[in-house]
């Protein structure tokens, strides 16, 4: 069952076409990851699926409805998006940022309610931000700041969350922290999570469904073990690699070729020199 689909979708800026006649279905209740080379249209596609970019052709369907014809607040009650590197006003506290997630439920006649309080507190608790709620967002570390923004999207109480490169500029520890959080949200709440990632091995580890984009279209999609291969990596990223399996998770693991210090080859070379010296 799909929660979000793109039908005959063509996207671009001005005369430049970024995505051309693309069809895609996002599985409900799963984690989907978009992969592809720089500039291939991953972020553009994500923005279009959140109705932040008007298609040139085709359309996006959310829960069976044409997203272009839905009221803005109705879309925001069903789908939340976290753009790449969001910026908050200087001095804004974590609590006040997370409160912004309740905006789709506000109107002239509906004041802040106990339901809103509960949604904000649940979002803070889910992201382990309760103790930091009075801190200003700009005083937080990168990982904490990203958790604060994710808490804001959770306060929207949507069943679908889109994230554009949520681990960008984070060190390895914070990358895993954020991806573990999203994985737990999916496991616990059945949330549909769609995100753009650059790290193929992390994409394989956390995704149920991977979509590889090349030449303005979907090159391949499916389970990580169905999509990730030496040929796919070569065709999509113009890179030679070996594909093996992660010994801890059993998911595909890409080992890129390239220059650099290779201990195995050096050890073999030294062994060969020793053997032939006698």
Automatic annotation (TrEMBL):
GO CC terms of this entry: plasma membrane
Domain of life the protein comes from: Bacteria
UniProt keywords, alphabetically: ATP-binding, Cell membrane, Ion transport, Iron, Iron transport, Membrane, Nucleotide-binding, Transport
InterPro entries per the UniProt record, alphabetical: AAA+_ATPase, ABC_transporter-like_ATP-bd, ABC_transporter-like_CS, P-loop_NTPase, Siderophore_ABC-ATPase
Keyword DNA-binding (UniProt): no
Gene Ontology molecular-function annotations: ATP binding; ATP hydrolysis activity
GO biological process: iron ion transport
Cellular localisation: Cell membrane
Membrane topology: Peripheral membrane protein
SMART domains reported for this sequence: AAA
Domain ABC transporter intervals: 4-240
Protein name, per record: ATP-binding cassette domain-containing protein
Organism whose genome encodes this protein: Aquibacillus halophilus
């Amino acid at each position: 069952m799909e929660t979000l689909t793109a039908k005959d979708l063509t996207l671009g800026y001005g005369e430049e076409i970024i995505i051309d006649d693309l069809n895609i279905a996002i599985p409900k209740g799963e984690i989907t990851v978009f992969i592809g080379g720089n500039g291939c249209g991953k972020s553009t596609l994500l923005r279009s699926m959140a109705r932040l970019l008007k298609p040139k052709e085709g359309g996006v369907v959310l829960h069976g409805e044409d997203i272009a014809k839905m009221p803005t607040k109705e879309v925001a009650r069903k789908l939340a998006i976290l753009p790449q590197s969001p910026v908050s006003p200087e001095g804004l506290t974590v609590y006040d940022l997370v409160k912004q997630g309740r905006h789709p439920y506000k109107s002239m006649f509906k004041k802040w309610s106990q339901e809103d309080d509960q949604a904000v507190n649940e979002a803070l608790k889910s992201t382990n931000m309760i103790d930091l709620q009075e801190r200003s967002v700009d005083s937080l570390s990168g990982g904490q700041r990203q958790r604060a923004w994710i808490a804001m999207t959770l306060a929207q109480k949507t069943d679908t969350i889109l994230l554009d490169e949520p681990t960008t500029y984070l060190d390895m520890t914070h990358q895993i922290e954020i991806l573990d959080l999203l994985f737990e949200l999916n496991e616990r709440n059945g949330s549909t999570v769609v995100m753009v990632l650059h790290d193929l091995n992390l994409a394989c580890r956390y995704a149920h469904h991977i979509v590889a984009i090349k030449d303005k279209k979907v090159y391949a999609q499916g389970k990580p073990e169905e999509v990730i291969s030496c040929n796919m990596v070569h065709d999509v990223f113009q890179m030679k690699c070996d594909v093996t399996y992660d010994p801890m998770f059993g998911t595909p693991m890409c080992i890129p070729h390239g220059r650099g210090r290779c201990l195995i080859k050096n050890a073999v070379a030294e062994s060969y020199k020793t053997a032939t010296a006698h």
